[in-house]
Amino acid sequence: MASLDADLAQLSACLAQSLSPDQTARGHAEAFLTQGASQPGFGVLLLRALASEAAEPQTRQAAAVTFKNLAKNHWVAREPDVVGAPPPYSIADAEKDQIRASLVGLMLSSPKLVRAQLTEALAIVCAADFPERWPSLLPELIQRMGSSGQRDFNAVVGVLTTANAMFKRYRQAYKSDELYKELKYVLDAFVAPLQALLLEISAAVDANANDATLLTSLFSCLRLIMRVFYSLNSQELPEVFEDAMDAWMGQFHKYLAYENPTAANVPELDRVKAAVCDNVNLYIEKNEEEFQRFLQTFVQDVWTLLTKTGAGAEKDHLVTSGVRFLTTVANSVHHSLFAGGDTLRQVCESIVIPNLQFRDDDEELFEMNHVEYIRRDVEGSDSDTRRRGAGELIKGLAGKFPNEMTTSVTGYVAALLGQFASDPVNSWKAKDAAIYLVISLTVKKSSAAKGATETNELVSVVDFFQTQIVPELAKATGQGPDAGGIGQAVLFADALKFMTIFRHQLPKAMILPVVPAVVALLRAENNVVHTYAAIALDRLLTTRDPLGPGAAPGAVTRSTPRYAPADLAATTEPLLTSLFGVFAKTDSGENDYAMRAVMRVIGFLGEGVKPVADACVTQLAAMAMETCKNPRNPAFSHYLFESIAALLRHANDPGLVGGFERALFPPFQHVLQADVVEFAPYVFQLLSQLIETHPSGSLPSAYVGIFPALLVPALWDRQGDG
What's the rounded Cα separation, in Å, for the pair 149 and 171? Predict the structure, then answer.
């Protein structure tokens, strides 16, 4: 580059323009940055740009993001995508040396947002180069931590943030000789200064108990030390930690029990406690024998901590980490620590019930962000929530103490249902909690495909369904699917979920009478409710009953569908009308759960779908055209085309095919002419199904209009997925 200063000025201007609201200016800037990423010296220039204190904060952050992406895409040499082509650009070794020499110092001196991006970039570089090609990194970090009595704890936070980013990859790394060689190098060099730092910070915490500002920095350091501890112990128990276990566990105990009015509003303290819970949970899982002598102390510490921790959202991480530890202990050979009716009662009363309640943020999620609510509740992504944690604790304890837990929890369920009965309008959360308690107590094993596969035999699912679930579902046909406000909507969702989970345990004669209520709930305006109704239908129609054992040990058990099309004969038309009506509701235009239910119903009805085939294909074709113009939800698109395929397969009547072709050819032509790559395979599959319905030699002239799109050379040049 002719002039570094001129290049730096040009780069800074482009970085600023990359944030411009003007699309043209932003596009030019992004093109320049993309081109620059393949030029020698670009990485060093980016570091100069983000180091410039004269630059705007947004420009420095943009430089850091660009540098992180450069490291991600060009640090490691890659093979060309096409055989014989030149390899993609990768940063030269000399430039890498320059970057490594300055990266740590720049990161520690940068503003917080810039530092966060550089930390990610450093982790990428470490994964490729540490320690062989970057032997100076660990000594530099240790040196920058400072020496005893002369530390800048704000700088120490930066160093530990770097170490945490470096070592995180050990948590999920595959065991190998190379990994253990690297771990030994890190452990030999880093653990001793880390432990010395821990003890010095702990002493500083005691000496500065009234200085909230300093305590914030100290607790930040402590949390990062705890996270580094977790990473370095994730593979197996290192000897250096085993030899010093008393010292480390002593500090863990200290901070689980630590109380200080000055630190009450310092959020980092809760994060320290949560990190300690994660560490002791790791030890009970991986190093049970060595950890056993500390176990009772930590169970008492965590128990006491949870009973004192409030319900605020800022405490959620702490509570979920603590409950997870107790659950691990409950599932281990040391579950006897919970033995005794009084102990189990206290667990339920002090830990389970308070953390299982439907909270205000759950209510807000239910109403305002149904996609996230369903993802958490149905797909199990709520593993880090209080409610899920409390439910797992019940399940763990019920597995070890079935009689005592069933008696105890049943008493709380009765009390909650009594509270609801006395004031159904204002106490709906009590019944919601009761239903969740019953599910947690009853389900031993489950799967998405089959629901509950093993249950607590001491709980009568059928009785609870008859007395508590059926009355709720009946309100959908009596009062209407939208009556009762948010409380009734939540209980509708709970009832549908209960029925879905226990679909194998609930007899057919008990399910069929509530199908009209499920159909009615498809018409509910609340997105969670009509989605849960669609999920319930989908799952119910896949339920199968075993015919008997297989022919040989280990053979697959033969089964037959529990429900037949005749069972839904009276509700087929309103069911499909209500199901298609879901897509007209706000924010459910591409509801993939509902479209999967459409696919399931069509397949379930088989030839019985013919009377409503025209109405179905009209709806599906209109949605296909809209989706092809603007694909947004791959799952919805997949089930949409599979629904069309199912309809063509089961309603392949010559008298219907003409209507199918008139409805489907417009979206098919759009896909082929606009080259909508992701949908072309579906269109070819569906066209072949339509062609097969015509006798040989009688193909209608309408197909001729599609042939030009099929004969485009680019279509045949395209490689398949295989």
Answer: 32
Q: Which amino acid is at 289?
A: E
Alpha-carbon torsion 459, 463, 467, 469, what sign? positive
Q: pLDDT tens digit string along 176-223?
A: 999 999 999 999 999 999 999 999 999 999 999 999 999 999 999 999
State the Cα–Cα distance between residues 155 and 161, nearest whole angstrom: 10
Distance (Å, whole) CA 59 – CA 52: 10
Sign for the CA dihedral angle at 254, 257, 263, 268 comes to positive
Give the Å distances, CA to CA, from 443 to 392, 430, 446, 644.
Answer: 10, 20, 7, 36
Alpha carbon distances (Å) from 49 to 11, 56, 109, 433, 644: 8, 10, 14, 55, 55
Q: Which residue has the tokens 């809209």?
A: 626
The tens digit of pLDDT for each residue in 438-480 reads 999 999 999 888 999 999 999 999 999 999 999 999 999 988 9
Torsion of Cα atoms, 439 then 274 then 107 then 92, to 10°: -50
Predicted local distance difference test score (pLDDT) of residue 551: 44
> Token match 């240790």: residue?
142
276 exposure class (CB count in 10 Å sphere: 0-12, 13-18, 19+)? buried
**Is residue 378 pLDDT above 50, yes or no?**
yes
Q: Which pLDDT does position 556 carry in this prediction?
A: 53
Residue 447, beta-bridge partner list = 451
As a whole number of angstroms, the distance between CA 76 and CA 129 comes to 9
The DSSP-derived string for 592-610 is HHHHHHHHHHHHHHGGGGG
Which residues does 619 contact at the CB level (< 8 Å), separation at least 6? 580, 583
On whether the CB atoms of residues 145 and 185 are closer than 8 A, the answer is: no
Distance CA 220, CA 506 (A): 52
Residue 672 is which amino acid?
A: L
- CB neighbour class for 512 (10 Å; exposed up to 12, middle 13-18, buried from 19): middle
Q: What is the 3-state secondary structure (H, E, C) of 340-405?
A: CHHHHHHHHHHHHHHHHCCCHHHHHHHHHCHHHHHHHHCCCCCCCCHHHHHHHHHHHHHHHCHHHH
Note the helical H segments in 522-633.
527-540, 572-581, 592-605, 613-629
d(CA 155, CA 141) in angstroms, rounded, equals 11
Give the tokens for residue 387: 């409610």
Q: Which amino acid is at 695?
A: P
> For residue 444, what is the enclosing H or E element?
strand 443-447
